[in-house]
Amino acid sequence: RAEDDARQVRAALEKELALARELSEKANSERMSQMRISMEEVVGTARTQAQEAEKRLAEAVDRASTVRREADQSAATAVKEARAKAEEILSRARTDADRLRNVAEAEAQLARNDAEAKVRELTRQQDSISAYLDEMKSTLGFAAAPPPPSGEETSGEDPHHP
């Protein structure tokens, strides 16, 4: 009878052990299933985040390209405008310089013409005075004095008048 009891205990223990194994395998299987689900969620979240990051990166690259293109266009426009402005300033400066040179030349020519007219007038007056003096000398009976010999100074006195 002890053997029967031992067999029964052994059979009961084997059944319990088999049941414990089955429960353990079932629990392991459930844990593995939950871990697989969790892993799939983590992988899915990571993929979504990676796709969003790639999308943001592409948008950032596009914005940077747009900003660079706009900056290049702006710089080119600024350089073009600066060159045009410089050419305009240079052209105005040349025009002003030409105008000022022409004005100065005209003023210089007027001053020269005025000076020449004064010289002609003074020469005419000198000739007129000389002619008048010669006429007066001849009217008064003085002969024109011969020029003094070179090297002699004249005292300002007429040698024919005492």
SS-derived structural category:
mainly alpha
The share of residues in extended strands comes to under 5%
Q: Taking Cα atoms only, what radius of gyration do you get, to the nearest Å? A: 63 Å
Q: Rough shape? A: rod-shaped
Order of helices and strands: H
Total beta-strand segments: 0
Describe the largest sheet.
none
List the total number of helices.
Answer: 1
Residue-averaged pLDDT, rounded? 87
Q: Percent helix among the residues?
A: over 70%
pLDDT under 50 segments (min length 5)? 152-157
Key features?
mainly alpha; 162 residues; 0% strand
Plain-language structure description:
By secondary structure, the protein is mostly helical. The protein has one helix at 2-140. Helices cover 86% and strands 0% of the residues. 0% of the residues are buried.
In brief:
This protein has one helix at 2-140. With 162 residues, the protein is mostly helical.
Secondary-structure topology with pairs:
Elements: H1 2-140
